[in-house]
Design a protein that fits this description.
The structure holds two protein chains of two kinds. By secondary structure, chain A is α+β, with helices and mostly antiparallel strands. Chain A is 36% helix and 34% strand. By secondary structure, chain B is α+β, with helices and mostly antiparallel strands. Chain B is built from two helices and twelve strands; from the N terminus they run ββββββββββββαα. Chain B is elongated, with a radius of gyration of 32 Å. Classes of the chains: A alpha+beta, B alpha+beta. β7 of chain A pairs parallel with β11 of chain B, so a sheet runs across the interface.
Chain lengths: 250, 187
Amino acid sequence: MIELNFTDFVVRAQEDDTDDDVDVEGEETGVTDEGGEEEEAVEKPTGSPDADTIILFTKPAVAPGTNLELPAGDLVEFLVGFRNKGPEDFVLETLDASFRYPMDFNFYIQNFSTLAYERPVKPGQEATLSYSFIPAEAFAGRPFGLSINLRYRDLNGRQFYEGVYNETVNIVEIDEGLDGETFFLYVLLGACVVLLLVVGQQFLYSVGKKRVGGGGGGTTHKRHVETGTANHNDVDYEWLPKETLQSLSE
Amino acid sequence: MMLVFCFQTLKAEESDASGRLLVSKQILNKYIVQDMDLIVKYTLYNIGNNAATKIVISDTSFNSDTFEHAGGQLKATIDRIPPGANVSHTVVLRPVRIGPYNFTAAKITYETGDESSKVQEAVSSEPGEGYIVAFRDYDKKFSPHLLDWGAFAMMTLPSLAIPFLLWWSSKSKYETLSSKHKKNQKD
């Protein structure tokens, strides 16, 4: 009875401690922190001392000594190398990657699929796993904690969950010189300008014509008095072909 | 065999001076089609502190009853990969049977370059399962249909040519008439 009470007290004390931490961090992150605590209780990454893992980003290529910058909306590829240094076989089970909140790696932002490999690695052997993912385009311009974890087991059934990569990466926006959308926007704008010019020209032309026609129209109209076919002199022969005119004048 | 050297410096996490290779095996085709080339690319990255030597890539994962060899070597030897460099090797195969196929890893042996000069065994990454599509199905989707368009052109030809010929004959008839008329007038 006494023991039970004691453990109860310890648990409560721990809870109090964590609650205090949350309060110190601030109200906004309080909710996320509580969510993260449950995740932490489920898994704690540990690797086998007989295993040696290494990661290499092949796309984009990483310059030495710089922070990893991943282009948003573009494919990212990396290789994970595994070397078995121990006397027993290992079986590589899964590899998963996720973006975490950089201030608190227990808070997940984007989870990528867990790939199952099930590949045995004999003692002294090496194996390479490849994995690729695309960071969401909405994440451009912000840092995220990238966490890549490898799960493997030995022949005794002991499972290991090793963090291969756990660092803050920057998601950068790729600025394409000219994408299709803006190109066609400019084409549309150009078409509008041309259309306006044509309409303007037509308008000016018609206005000019009216003014010229209106100025002399009064007098010319008065002169036109219908005389039927009596007057042969003002017959307009212009519309007739030349051959016909010639034959007429003969 | 195509070798591409491209220098890439990496932070080496291992303290001992020995070469270490990461090998990726990729299938570059988007569609794996029967009787069409299948391109397999092996890229070897040396991420160790020393050169890897006497590298032998051997890939026995392609069944001879499913794949025909078209180019490149399935068992290749590379003398040396300096630290921080990478080498790629390409093989071209031609699938002869349709159906799903599980593309598995290639085996690599190399010497790590340190004093022990032990032979290190490694396996590449696996491209995974793919499906070999029949050429007919692929052709249905992606063929340029040149024969069909040619037949279409032949079929549309009469409906264009007949009115043109009618117009042409009447035009030439009236042209000769008018020129005769002119000549008569001049005389």
